[in-house]
Write a structure and sequence with these properties.
The chain is of the alpha/beta class and 333 residues long. The chain has 12 helices and 8 strands. It has helices at 19-30, 40-51, 55-66, 73-91, 109-118, 138-151, 168-185, 205-209, 214-229, 254-263, 281-298, 315-328; strands at 4-12, 98-104, 123-128, 157-160, 195-201, 236-241, 268-272, 304-307. Strand 7 (268-272), helix 11 (281-298) and strand 8 (304-307) form a beta-alpha-beta unit.
Amino acid sequence: MNDTAVVWIALGTPDEPTPTAVRRFLREFLMDPRIVEMNPAMWRVILELFVLSRRPRVSAEKYRSIWYDEGSPLLVHTQRQIVALKTSLTDAGVDAPIVYAMRYGEPSVASVLQGLADSGVKRVLIIPAYPQYSQTTVGSVYDAVTAYMRSSRNQMEYRFVRSWPTAPGYIEALASKIEEKWDICGRPDFDHGDTLLLSFHGIPVSMSEAGDPYRSECEATAQALRVRLGIDDTQCRVTFQSKFGPAPWLTPATINTVEALGKSGVARVDVICPAFTADCLETLEEIGILNREAFAEATNNKGEFHRIPCVNKDPAFIGEVTRIIQSNLQGWV
């Protein structure tokens, strides 16, 4: 095997849409101190007694509503991305294999890195599947890699990709997905209030105020996409989704915005989720089902709601990731 490899790291997914599998996944996810900043001992009691006693059953039902025949949507799309990236890297003359790992669940970061080490790899490029940096995503990936490093006696050499919120191919892929939807459904009538929402995964306000740059990187993505589409911030708005717990999170919340737009008489809302590079529970169920239902109720079923797919394996996106990999492998291959 080549002595240099690339690891694409996604968030992760339960192995199956059952309460047991979801509980196992949520325990690992929610015990990450990057996700919940609270005294670990106190949080573990709350997590076990209150969160994991109820949430896995509800979440399992949601997963079942969007589960593919091939398995978890996130896993399926991640595997397809890897197939596309392998072809793209080969075509670009990049002599380094690419594999994927999951920050939570399987295959774990540690198991993938150990497998590479066992096969003779000496140098590893880590690229998190998150365009915008946050301590809850990219920071947590760094933690997982360094935890493995601390456990290893024979260290490999590492490089890390931090973020790429305005990478041209990524912005082009987002625009392509939006325009594909508009080719099918017609362009929104922005002059009469139709709105495009860019729904990013949220983080607690406290994290943002403490220095997490996530919001500013989301705004950078949004502005680059507006320029590409030729629309402004009244037509294309930033919102945040997936709030967890009672603490204040970044606003405006996507579902509150969707409801408010519907009640105000807006006839159409399109939603895309730029922070997610692969469709998953948060895009397929939360946006595609929950937010769709909220807009329908707010408009008495008279409104038009469109969920726009993630970039997944869009050629422009795969090309951009290939260029990012090439740039960061300079001097190695």
